[in-house]
């Protein structure tokens, strides 16, 4: 049963019991309605308490029901709340731990609410591109005031029950009890107190206004517009709360419902829902049982204290894990430690870290120049130069010194993990942990599963990723893994566009208007053009004839590696990051084009976006065919968290579904006709062709 029914004295207790967070799916709604009817019919019952079992009162709607008829099936949440309001006996919501979304809306429909301290109260629907659709925008302003309510509805972030209880004049909570443990007893006592109270109070009958009236909402709209950017929901939240101040309750409810239903059909909501589910699905690996025992990771060693080693050390220290840092040379070690300290000091300066935390975190860091000192670490990650010879030597050493059962990881971004694992006598303990730079900031972690990586190694590093607040995606072994394998084709297209008539600024602008945090040329200037140069040199040997625009090589031959050298695709003023169009680059591209005998053509932003994004889609589909990624939503996660793909588009694969795979494949076939492009690459992946024939999505 998803709602437990008991009678204690003269009070019926309906306990939501639908783990993990008492989501209000159809079965729970039916059980709640039945429980309510039973309590109302029982003459011995004088009052009713609604509570939540386990670790929540209720986390709200069941997101997997969104977009399916189940979400609307009766009793839907609105009908449940109407039934609650219409109850002829006092109804008391007793909330603890988590009271969010539909859970809070249900509580707002009750006659009384009492709360345990520390309860996280929120209307987080905006984070899914929606607004609260069961009265939240109409009832919350009536109990805590328009401004606090709008802040909660637009922000979606939880506020603690005691903070809300402290708001002047609030009517959200009738009582704040001592603790979660005493909540039920106090709820029963409260129920006895109000058993005979009539008329029963209803939130809908409370007034709702703001002293500055519409002036306030104009101000709110201006603020929200800046934050909302590509998302319609935040402004709609303002509209809905304003409706609460302007209209009768029933009309405000109708407005909220209409707006909610309209938002449900937006691509932005679909994108955010997709990402929410994608994140939850990411750690699930099809052939790895969820109950695989974990190896404890209580201490970490990092080999190499450069850019990545330092960033990774900070990520572990922030999670309270002791880190031992190893370098080949004392100078490099001192430099690495100084950078870590500076990174913390700058956080303290910006007020992001309390000063006492700085020393606390650094006290977890120890250093060494000797491999033998790493012996005890549960996990060791190598972040030395991207050179197979150097990595081979490091892994032989790690194999010699590390205790049995320790996990041996490499942060390589391009090298063959299986070859690295073969340098040890324990390839089952070797895994790739591909962090993105800056490693303590970027949320993405590609976990690279070698041919022999043990399942418990995989699950243990996935659990560790969660601990250090990373979103981890599992990738098989291939050149570039998921993200860099795809980005190569994206960057190739950007190069071809220069040959055909674009400027770097035009391409960047088109991609940034589409929603990318940075266009491909600004991104390359930031990460360093020399990285791609090295890849192209390698490709020239491995895959002779593999096509690239030569402009990027011409750029690198001038030492224009990007921001770090003060010049790349753009010019940079020392100390600043503004990308300034470069006359030299324009001239170089024009001259190169002329040397190929090409006449520049006018290229639309639509073509730019399609060629770059569909290049990601085609390679993404091949990655799925090859079994490198387990599911297409993993690819979306990689691109959103690692490469600045626009969140409101849901990732490249989700975007392809939005556009329609038929259209995507047709565009690829068109691009294949362009003699300046790579016709072989644009053959649509077999997976895409099959899905089009079957009328399916990715
Ligand atoms: P880096 O050049 O900043 O740092 C490498 C460090 O390793 C240097 O401090 C060097 O002294 C040390 N080192 C070299 N040989 C060593 C040895 N035998 N024993 C101990 N220490 C040794 O390089 P970075 O950028 O930190 O890259 C490290 C690894 O991370 C590479 O495999 C790279 O492909 C990978 N990576 C780099 C990313 C980036 O954006 N920089 C992103 C993701 C992965």
TrEMBL record:
Domain 3-hydroxyacyl-CoA dehydrogenase NAD binding: 299-475
Pathway field: Lipid metabolism; fatty acid beta-oxidation
Enzyme Commission number(s) of this protein: 1.1.1.35
Family matches, as Gene3D superfamilies: 1.10.1040.50, 2-enoyl-CoA Hydratase, Chain A, domain 1 (3.90.226.10), NAD(P)-binding Rossmann-like Domain (3.40.50.720)
Identification of the protein by name: 3-hydroxyacyl-CoA dehydrogenase
Keywords tagged on the record: Fatty acid metabolism, Isomerase, Lipid degradation, Lipid metabolism, Lyase, Multifunctional enzyme, NAD, Oxidoreductase, Peroxisome
InterPro entries, alphabetized: 3-OHacyl-CoA_DH_NAD-bd, 3HC_DH_C, 6-PGluconate_DH-like_C_sf, ClpP/crotonase-like_dom_sf, Enoyl-CoA_hydra/iso, NAD(P)-bd_dom_sf
Reaction(s) this enzyme catalyzes, per UniProt: a (3S)-3-hydroxyacyl-CoA + NAD(+) = a 3-oxoacyl-CoA + NADH + H(+)
GO biological process: fatty acid beta-oxidation
Lineage: Bacteria, Pseudomonadati, Pseudomonadota, Betaproteobacteria, Burkholderiales
GO molecular function: (3S)-3-hydroxyacyl-CoA dehydrogenase (NAD+) activity; enoyl-CoA hydratase activity; isomerase activity; NAD+ binding
Cellular localization per UniProt: Peroxisome
């Amino acid at each position: 049963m998803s709602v437990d029914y008991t009678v204690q004295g003269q009070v019926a207790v309906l306990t939501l019991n639908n783990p993990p967070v008492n989501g209000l799916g159809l079965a729970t709604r039916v059980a709640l309605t039945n429980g309510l009817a039973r309590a109302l019919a029982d003459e011995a019952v004088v009052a009713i308490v609604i509570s939540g079992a386990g670790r929540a009162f209720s986390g709200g709607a069941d997101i997997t029901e969104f977009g399916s008829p189940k979400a609307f099936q009766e009793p839907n949440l609105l009908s449940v709340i109407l039934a609650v309001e219409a109850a002829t006996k006092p109804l008391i919501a007793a909330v603890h731990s988590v009271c969010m979304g539909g859970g809070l809306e249900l509580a707002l429909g009750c006659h009384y609410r009492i709360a345990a301290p520390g309860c996280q109260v929120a209307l987080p629907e905006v984070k899914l591109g929606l607004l609260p659709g069961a009265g939240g925008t109409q009832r919350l302003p009536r109990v805590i005031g328009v401004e606090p309510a709008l802040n909660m509805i637009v922000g979606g972030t939880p506020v603690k029950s005691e903070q809300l209880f402290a708001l002047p004049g609030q009517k959200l909570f009738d009582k704040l009890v001592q603790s979660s443990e005493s909540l039920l007893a106090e709820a029963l006592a409260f129920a006895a107190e109000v058993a005979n109270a009539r008329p029963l109070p209803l939130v809908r009958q409370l007034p709702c206004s703001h002293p500055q009236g519409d002036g306030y909402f104009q101000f709110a709209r201006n603020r929200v517009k800046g934050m909302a950017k590509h998302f319609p929901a935040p402004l709609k939240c303002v509209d809905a709360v304003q409706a609460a101040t302007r209209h009768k309750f029933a009309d405000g409810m109708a407005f909220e419902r209409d707006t909610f239903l309209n938002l449900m059909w937006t691509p932005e909501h679909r994108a955010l829902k997709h990402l929410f589910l994608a994140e939850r699905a990411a750690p699930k690996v099809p052939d790895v049982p969820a109950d695989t025992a974990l190896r404890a990771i209580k201490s970490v060693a990092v080999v190499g204290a450069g850019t990545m080693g330092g960033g990774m050390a900070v990520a572990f220290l922030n999670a309270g894990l002791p880190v031992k840092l190893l370098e080949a040379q004392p100078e490099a070690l001192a430099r690495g430690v100084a950078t870590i300290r500076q990174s913390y000091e700058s956080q303290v300066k910006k007020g992001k870290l309390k000063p006492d935390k700085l020393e606390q975190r650094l006290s977890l860091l120890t250093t060494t120049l000797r491999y033998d000192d790493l012996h005890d670490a549960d996990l060791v990650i190598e972040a030395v130069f991207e050179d197979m010879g150097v990595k081979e030597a490091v892994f032989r050493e790690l194999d010699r010194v590390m205790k049995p059962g320790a996990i041996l990881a490499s942060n390589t971004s391009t090298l063959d993990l299986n070859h690295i694992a073969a340098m040890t006598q324990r390839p089952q303990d070797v895994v790739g942990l591909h962090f993105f730079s800056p490693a303590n900031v970027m949320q993405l972690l590609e976990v690279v599963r070698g041919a022999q990586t043990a399942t418990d190694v995989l699950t243990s590093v996935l659990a560790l990723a969660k601990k250090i607040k990373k979103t981890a995606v599992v990738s098989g072994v291939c050149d570039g893994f998921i993200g860099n394998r795809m980005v190569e084709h994206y960057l190739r297209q950007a190069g071809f566009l220069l040959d055909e008539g674009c400027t770097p600024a035009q391409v960047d602008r088109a991609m940034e208007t589409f929603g990318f945090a940075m266009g491909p040329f600004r991104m390359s200037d930031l990460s360093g053009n020399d990285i791609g140069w090295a890849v192209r040199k390698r490709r020239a040997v491995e895959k002779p004839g593999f096509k690239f625009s030569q402009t990027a090589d011409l750029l690198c031959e001038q030492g224009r590696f990007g921001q770090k050298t003060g010049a790349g695709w753009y010019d940079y003023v020392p100390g600043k990051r503004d990308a300034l169009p470069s006359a030299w680059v324009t001239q170089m591209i024009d001259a190169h084009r002329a040397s190929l005998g090409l006449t520049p053509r006018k290229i639309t932003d639509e073509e730019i976006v399609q060629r770059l994004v569909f290049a990601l889609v085609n390679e993404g589909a091949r990655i799925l065919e090859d079994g490198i990624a387990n599911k297409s939503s993993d690819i979306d996660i990689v691109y959103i968290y690692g490469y600045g793909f626009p969140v409101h588009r849901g990732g490249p694969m989700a975007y392809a579904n939005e556009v329609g795979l038929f259209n995507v494949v047709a565009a690829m076939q068109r691009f294949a006709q362009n003699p300046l492009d790579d016709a072989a690459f644009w053959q649509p992946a077999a997976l895409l062709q099959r899905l089009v024939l079957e009328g399916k999505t990715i």
